[in-house]
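Give me the 3D structure for Iron complex transport system ATP-binding protein.
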Amino acid sequence: MNIRLENVAVALGKRDVVRSASASFAPGTLTGIVGPNGAGKSTLARAMLALVPHAGRILVDDVEVATMSRAELAKRVAYLPQGQTLHWPLTVERLVELGRLPHLAPMSRIGEADTAAIERAIERADVAGLRDRVATELSGGERARVLLARALAVEAPALIADEPLASLDPGHQIDVMELLQGEARAGGVVIAVLHDLTMAARYCDRLVLIDNGTVVADGTPAEVLTPANLKSVYGIDAKVELTGDWPTITTLGRSR
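Predicted structure for Iron complex transport system ATP-binding protein (256 residues):
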């Protein structure tokens, strides 16, 4: 499995949100897409799933996503969107079962292989204790973990998670990042849109820094999260120190 972007551009209305973005995402790597609010991170993630029209080429296993059926793309790339609202009072177990829909023929039922995948996802996302709860009654953090379990239940070779740490307490943020890291270590293509630069630096193998719809840096966290890049992209003065294998970022204030 590989995902490759070649000069991708996305316009929403009259605004160019993504401009000539090129990058590749390989198996065994947890890649963080970082950048300020409005930089185009989530739009780029949605373009990879053919959820918004785009120019340029987006290829999954050398096949353009625009030519793939929705079901086939969903089997290959699982998606955890940000801030998803739940409208139906489903139990947690039933909600996680929905992750198996790409594998089911119309009117077919959950089989043994699907049940096993659902159980694995529930355990990996640490929501076994919630399985009989109604999903619409969960806290924001509980809901975020349940939706992650639904994405994991697909058992696709690639996973795109858009702001997976939102609404989570620090302990569960660590759990989620370790889970995503584990998915990558097991050979998956894992892409996470992140705002927390410290967590991105600690857990990601690689970062793609986006500003104003353009990829401005691509490399290891130490290569990307430099004081110069943080000043240019975020407009902040920051102290960057290497702690072990990852940089620690201390924000000093707005650049003057």
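Residues 91 and 134 are 4 Å apart (CA to CA). Let me know if you want a second pass.
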